[in-house]
Amino acid sequence: METRTPRGFHDVLPDEVRRWQFIEDNARRIFDLYGFSEIRIPVLEFTEVFARSLGTTTDIVEKEMYTFTDRDGSSITLRPEGTAGVVRAFVENSMHAKSPVSKLWYSGMMFRHERPQKGRYRGFYQIGAELLGPEDPASDADLIAMVWKFLESIGLSDRLTLEISSLGDQRCRPQYKEKLVAYFKPEADRLCPDCRRRLGTNPLRILDCKEEGCRKIAAGAPKMMDNLCGECAAHFGAVREYLGSAGVPYTINPKIVRGLDYYTRTVFEVTTNELGSQNAVAAGGRYDGLVEELGGPGTPAVGFATGMERLVLLHEKAHPGGFRREIKVFIAYVGEGTETAAFRLTAALRERGVPAEMEYGGKSLKSQLKRADKSGAVYTFIIGEDELSRGKVKLRRMETSSEEEVDIEAAPALSF
Ligand SMILES: [Zn+2]
Ligand SMILES: [Zn+2]
Fold first, then answer.
1. Distance 174 CA to ligand 2 centre (A)
2. I want to staple 103 with a disulfide (CB 3.0 to 4.6 A). Which of 36, 282, 341, 392 is the partner?
């Protein structure tokens, strides 16, 4: 029997989870501020949902999905990302009919069968948001500003770079793709095998290849940014203007491709140079064709997702320490009949909102104080037989080891 997590999966242990909660709490708070509501979607969908939304020639669909045949013969896939499922839910629940604008956020585990490395797991947590309905560039900028505000709220924005670009739309991208193919074709022999294949299926992905040879050739390739149609150029210009007016610092990186087929117009990435090759901590963009692709009415949309593991790694570097759970008061006891009094005092403290923890099983006072110390308690009550018979209890200030006697009845009401 294997009693380890499968390769690429990991536990988040109690020592680390406070930091996770801090990041999640801030996400919730900021998304709320921007009018987003949480949506909870299943961790799995029919495979078709992902094949149709992500595109059959993407790396994810081609080789990274956890797909299995269900007992009734249907093909099921563990979600490799969140957008497809949110859009599926948007369509299935006719959310477009209820409001012209839907603002949804989600969080949870995603699954991709990739080669694990630092900051990259096969089971990983994402937080993301989707803004469905408007085509207005203000919605792109609003979402991007929200992402930046969130990263600011957890104290990371000064270590991150926001890059934006435009991928054009169905009017200007096909012509651009032709230009790309014409550019790469004479160089086909010098491209890696993957890119040679991409030349026929998805030439944009060549721009994204990590192979040195491909990167050299791609450096001189025509850029989408120089080939936008009038509407796309105007849209991008407006997004920039809004971002500027919101005080969001950004740079333009025409090389952003994103690995998914559904993006149109605005795309963006938030990157760090502190995590090696896993440099993207958040990314997103506009996907005006996806809702229709999944059977809904034509609905423009823009969204983003961020990887929790990378945020946590970066956050540990930026703000080491300070994220353990702390108990305010520990209750120790020694002698006959003191355990019940300890139980009662603990309950009374919690009733007043004081985080309190008691000893179980009554070990020696020395070992109880050791545990109290380890728990991070600021105070420890020590209930002894003699004091208890006089209605008293000892209060020990852990930092100084100073002790005083207080009335046990008044103890829960002390200011800690
Ligand atoms: Zn390549
Ligand atoms: Zn266009």
1. 10
2. 36
In this structure, which ligand is nearest to the CA of 232?
2
Domain boundary among 275, 293, 318: 318
Neighbours of ion ligand 2 (CB under 5 A): 168-169, 171-172, 229, 232
How many angstroms is it from 285 CA to the middle of ligand 2?
A: 15
Does residue 289 lie in a domain region? yes
Please count the structural domains in the chain.
Answer: 2
* Structure confidence by residue, pLDDT tens digits, 278-317: 789 999 999 999 999 999 999 999 999 999 999 999 999 9
Q: How far is the CA of 262 from the centre of ligand 1 (A)?
A: 21
User: Distance between CA 347 and CA 327 in Å, rounded?
Assistant: 14
Q: Is residue 271 part of a domain?
A: yes
Q: Return the ligand number nearest the Cα of 218.
A: 1
Looking up residue 135, the CATH number of its domain turns out to be 3.30.930.10
Q: Please report where in the chains the tokens 């990739």 appear, as a residue.
A: 114
Radius of gyration of the chain (CA): 28
Share the mean pLDDT of the chain: 94
Q: How much distance in Å is there from the Cα of 211 to the middle of ligand 1?
A: 5
CATH for 376:
3.40.50.800
Q: What b-and-e string marks burial along 109-131, b requiring 16 or more CB atoms within 10 Å of the CB?
A: ebbbbbeeeebbbbbbbbbbbbb
15 CA from centroid of ligand 2 (Å): 49
Domain end call among 318, 347, 364: 318
Look up the pTM and report it: 0.90
Residue 200 identity (one-letter amino acid): G
Amino acid at 290: L
Q: For residue 51, give the H/E element and its range.
A: helix 47-54
pLDDT in tens, 108-132: 999 999 999 888 899 999 999 999 9
Distance 120 CA to ligand 1 centre (A): 21
81 lies in which domain range? 14-172+228-318
The answer on 262 and 314 residing in a single domain is yes
Residue 259 pLDDT class (50, 70, 90 cuts): low
CA 231 – ligand 2 centroid, Å: 6
Question: What does 188-200 look like in DSSP terms, one character per residue?
Answer: GGGS-HHHHHHHH
Residue 248 and residue 112 share a domain:
yes
